[in-house]
């Protein structure tokens, strides 16, 4: 799916634009975002009746909190749960148009960090509609932080704390299942193949975070984000496993992947060891991540993963 491919390949943080609205409009918008609880650094919508959710994990969290009735729209990466597909789609989270988001008349915009482009986000932040940005950290704690921020924004702190504790326990259990494994799999996450060149994940990416949580080791070191690798870099990395998304395009066949000379020269290529998992499930860092960690660990280690 193009949305997940672009979401990962760009890996660009959203940049906060300066707000040039008149002082009265600015004061009203700020007041809407900063009621009781603002001292904790977490914003709250004053009117939570019609929220536009931007980012797949944000939409999933809203549903997990049982607050989906507040949603008036979602972005194109928000395709889980299935019921979310019935909501109006305001576009891909990294290619938003202000007109598309504003067309649903939201009373608040809840957006995952990294939404863009910057110019569109700047325009949305200058309107009188409160805009709350949710941080994205590819970690166990990052998921809990998202849940608490979304819950605070929607005025359901207690429900968010219950969900956070449930997810904390599930994540901890999922991570412990690979604690006793000594020989860790070296994993190469391939985002795409362009002109025969492998675009792979370095550090500070969702793929890197998931590989580590599932007990693996990112075979690529020395850079953050996503980068095209030289043949020498791939051979030197020596991955045991290739990991890809099952729904990112353009599709890459097994024959195309393992026909790449550099991939063929690695242990993963010799064994034709490839794991494909749905992008939203694998890299969403939301309510389903504990299950994704378990499934990925089993794909890495099989029966060595403890229950």
From TrEMBL:
Residues 50-304 form the Fe/B12 periplasmic-binding domain. CDD domains: HutB. This is Hemin ABC transporter substrate-binding protein. InterPro entries: ABC_Transporter_SBP (IPR050902), ABC_transptr_periplasmic_BD (IPR002491).
């Amino acid at each position: 799916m193009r949305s997940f491919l672009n979401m990962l390949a760009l890996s660009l943080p959203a940049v906060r634009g300066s707000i040039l609205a008149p002082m009265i409009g600015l004061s009203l918008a700020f007041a809407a975002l900063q009621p009781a609880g603002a001292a904790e650094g977490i914003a709250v919508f004053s009117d939570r009746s019609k929220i536009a959710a931007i980012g797949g994990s944000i939409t999933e969290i809203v549903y997990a909190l049982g607050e989906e009735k507040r949603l008036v729209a979602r972005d194109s990466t928000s395709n889980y749960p299935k019921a979310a597909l019935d909501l109006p789609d305001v576009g891909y989270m990294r290619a938003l148009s202000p007109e598309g988001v504003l067309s649903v008349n939201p009373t608040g915009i809840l957006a995952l960090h990294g939404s863009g482009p910057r110019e569109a986000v700047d325009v949305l932040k200058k309107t009188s509609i409160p805009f709350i940005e949710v941080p994205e950290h590819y970690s166990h704690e990052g998921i809990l932080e998202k849940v608490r921020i979304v819950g605070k924004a929607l005025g359901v702190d207690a429900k968010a704390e219950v969900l956070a504790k449930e997810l904390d326990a599930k994540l901890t259990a999922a991570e412990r299942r690979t604690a006793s494994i000594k020989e860790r799999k070296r994993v190469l996450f391939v985002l795409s193949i362009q002109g025969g060149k492998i675009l792979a994940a370095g550090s500070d990416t969702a793929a890197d975070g998931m590989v580590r949580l599932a007990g693996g080791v990112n075979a690529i070191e020395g850079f953050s984000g996503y980068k095209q690798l030289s043949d020498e870099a791939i051979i030197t990395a020596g991955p045991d496993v290739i990991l890809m998304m099952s729904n990112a395009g353009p599709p890459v066949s097994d024959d195309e992947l393992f026909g790449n000379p550099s991939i063929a020269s690695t242990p993963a290529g010799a064994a034709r060891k490839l794991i494909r998992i749905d992008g939203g499930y694998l890299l969403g860092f939301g309510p389903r991540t504990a299950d994704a960690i378990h499934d990925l660990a089993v794909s890495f280690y099989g029966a060595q993963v403890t229950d």
